[in-house]
From TrEMBL:
The keyword Transmembrane helix applies. Gene3D superfamilies: MFS general substrate transporter like domains. Keywords: Cell membrane, Membrane, Transmembrane, Transmembrane helix. GO terms for molecular function: transmembrane transporter activity. The keyword Methyltransferase does not apply. This is Major facilitator transporter. It comes from Enterobacter asburiae. InterPro entries: MFS, MFS_dom, MFS_trans_sf. Residues 1-171 form the Major facilitator superfamily (MFS) profile domain. The chain crosses the membrane at residues 16-38, 45-66, 78-99, 111-130, 136-157.
């Protein structure tokens, strides 16, 4: 979405290089965050780590909505890498713990990956349509609102009891 904004602007920035920069920044952040999180799930727990990642997402989208300055890509993509690093490690581990002994761990992973894929494909379609009819700021604001709904759903419906009786190293 950031690259689409740059491509649509009359600026002299190469959209391809800009898109590459967005990927490089988020990946450079995601990798060390994922390593750090993998070693701290026992300490902080699934609920807190997933909540942290979910809280980052609306902030990221709101920041992207607040300005169209190309350099705002840097903090936006840092936040993207932070959330991706946390969720990329915690969610699969959480599914294993949640479904341990059921014989359905792979099915659970598949369902989550399917939902992530649907969301990843619907997001640019939705926001591209909104940006085309209104503005990129409006599109990013909608993404922020959707992310806030995820935060509220996790807060209201996720059970914190998972923290005390299920850890990745536990039996």
């Amino acid at each position: 979405m950031l690259s689409m904004r740059v491509a649509a602007a009359p600026a002299s920035i190469n959209p391809g290089l800009y898109a590459a920069g967005t990927v490089i920044i988020s990946q450079a952040v995601m990798i060390p965050v994922a390593i750090w999180v993998a070693n701290r799930i026992d300490r902080y727990g699934y609920w807190r780590l997933i909540m942290l990642a979910l809280l980052v997402m609306p902030v990221r989208a709101a920041l992207a909505a607040s300005t169209d300055a190309p350099l705002m890509m840097i903090p936006v993509q840092i936040l993207d890498g932070l959330a991706a690093g946390i969720l990329g490690v915690v969610v699969p581990s959480f599914i294993v713990v949640l479904l341990r002994g059921s014989g359905h761990v792979n099915a659970g992973q598949s369902v989550v990956m399917l939902m992530q894929g649907v969301g990843a494909s619907m997001s640019p379609a939705l926001t591209g349509t909104i940006a085309g009819h209104y503005s990129f700021a409006t599109a990013f604001s909608v993404l922020s609102a959707i992310a806030l709904v995820a935060v509220l759903l996790w807060w209201c419906f996720a059970h914190r009891t998972w923290e005390t009786d299920s850890t990745p190293g536990g039996a």
